TrEMBL record:
Main location group: membrane
Signal sequence annotation: none
TM helices/strands, residue ranges: 48-67, 74-94, 114-134
Mode of membrane association: Multi-pass membrane protein
Name recorded for this polypeptide: Putative oxidoreductase
Keywords: Membrane, Transmembrane, Transmembrane helix
InterPro entries for the chain: DoxX (IPR032808)
Cell compartment(s), UniProt: Membrane
GO terms under cellular component: membrane
Amino acid sequence: MTFEILVAFLTRLSLVLLFLPFSALDKVLNFADATKQAGQATSSHGVAKALILTGLFVEVVMSLGVLTGVADRLAAFILSGYCAVTAVLFKQFWRAPDFRLRGPSTGRETLWDFLKNFAVAGGFLLVTFGPTAGSVDRFFADPFGSTHPYSLTETQP
């Protein structure tokens, strides 16, 4: 394995490490608690379970896509949306009764988690669309294509 491939792999691993294995494993080991947390978004216990199972699928399958390079742009796009949706559903800093910018505040702590979700979403969008404006069209032309992350030559899918 060359240094360049190792860097590409570790970069992608750092993006998905939050989800696979940690968040996915947490959902499996603490399914009841995860379902209870999902109850913040819905009053239906069945829908809450479906949300957790959907999240588990997204975290495992899409993370593997980003890591392996198989349909990695689409996988990263889905993970970006997942980060944004989970921020809005579960990091509602604006609802905290003690939200303030100065002094102790659980709402402010939640704000940082909210912003971190969007920062990770931005990282996934870089995988999706590439670093330049000219690369955006490539995703829409072939959303299931690969960025060929472990190729040692520049490829234009």
